[in-house]
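Task: sequence design from structure.
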């Protein structure tokens, strides 16, 4: 009953070290270690090698190294009875909320304009420097819920969209079926949706046309939500006033992308939040031990929903 960590994109050495120092009793291996694959009951993955799960006949648990599980759900070979878990916690929600608050304040207080003014030595005081912001959060899971509470405490009007009604004081909760109404209430849209087949390409002209003119877009979730040309068009025709994008359909973003030079688009390289190894390892080991004891992990991904 051992753990195998696999990723074709991450350096796994710090993870291995952290697993071993957190619990020396638990056996943890990388794919290239000489380990009999029948021993593996938990696979801890982030962009794992194709075909991995088929090689693990006794697999019981797949754990994501991060918050998202789309990299797992995209694999057609997940065995039917295997449970899937992901990382949750203040180490993810705190930095994610702070990042979004930074992007919202950057837009609200027009820091882009003042940077340009500074470079032109222009002293131009806005008569109304604190624009009224009505923030809509699409996706009110652990991350969206944390952001909603924090924005509300900062005095913003907050609206949330989710599959089930949320009860967060002063935050207006809409169901997915009420999407059009939700979009009509806001002038900043923060996207925190999981990547599933139903959210692919959701940030498109069809959705932008339902927003108030001049709404600002922030996407910190997944690039596959975006139709890049529609974002550019919506900014050109002022349906969107601009966008702050941390994620892209192809990462790293191609040098040819028009996003790099667009004056109304700010981009960051998928760094809104980075999993903290020291928060993740205890969660994964706890789930591994629960599975050995015949229990389900505390955080269980709904395989039908895909998150
Ligand atoms: C995650 C991410 O899902 O970093 O954890 O995007």
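Answer:
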């Amino acid at each position: 009953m051992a753990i195998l960590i696999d990723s074709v994109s991450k350096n796994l050495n710090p993870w291995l070290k952290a697993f071993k120092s957190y619990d020396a009793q638990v056996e943890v291996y990388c794919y290239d270690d000489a380990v009999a694959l029948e021993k593996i009951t938990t696979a801890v993955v982030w962009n794992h090698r194709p075909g991995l799960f088929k090689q693990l006949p006794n697999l019981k648990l797949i754990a994501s190294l991060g918050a998202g599980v789309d990299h797992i759900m995209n694999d057609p070979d997940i065995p039917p009875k295997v449970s899937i878990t992901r990382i949750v916690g203040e180490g993810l929600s705190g930095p994610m909320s702070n990042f979004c608050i930074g992007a919202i304040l950057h837009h609200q207080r027009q820091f882009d304009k003042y940077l340009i003014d500074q470079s032109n030595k222009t002293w131009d005081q806005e008569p109304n420097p604190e624009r009224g912001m009505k923030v809509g959060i699409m996706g009110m899971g652990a991350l969206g819920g944390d952001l909603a509470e924090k924005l509300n405490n900062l005095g913003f009007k907050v609206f949330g969209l989710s599959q089930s009604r949320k009860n967060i004081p002063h935050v207006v909760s809409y169901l997915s079926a009420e999407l059009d109404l939700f979009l009509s209430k806001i002038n900043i849209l923060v996207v925190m949706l999981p990547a599933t087949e139903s959210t692919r390409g959701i940030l498109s002209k069809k959705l932008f046309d339902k927003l108030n003119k001049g709404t600002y877009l922030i996407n910190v979730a997944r690039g596959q939500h975006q139709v890049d040309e529609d974002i550019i068009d919506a900014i050109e025709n002022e349906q969107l006033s601009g966008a702050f994008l941390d994620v892209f359909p192809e990462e790293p973003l191609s040098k040819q992308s028009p996003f790099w030079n667009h004056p109304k688009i700010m981009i960051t390289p998928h760094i809104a939040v980075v999993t903290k190894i020291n928060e993740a390892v205890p969660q994964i080991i706890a789930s591994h031990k629960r599975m050995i004891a015949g229990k389900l992990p505390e955080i269980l991904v709904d395989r039908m929903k895909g998150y």
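The pocket of oxalic acid is lined by residues 66-68, 273, 275 (CB under 6 Å).
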